[in-house]
Design brief:
76 residues, four-stranded mixed sheet, mainly beta
Amino acid sequence: MSLRVSPSSRPQEPVNESPGARPWLGVRFVCSGQYQRVYRDVNGERYLARCHKCGKTITFKVGHGGSDQRFFDVSC
């Protein structure tokens, strides 16, 4: 069974984009209703998120042709 990912609406509070801050994504797992802030790996190649309820993982790759979205809903 595959995971479905869709962009979610941006939260009302501003996102801190200060220089030198570590890049992150906001991921909400629908099955558990939990939100996670997922930071880019040390190689700068991906973001890895894991659902606390079902244990499924999803990888967001960094690179050309990617998305400019910062927040995602994951159905697992």
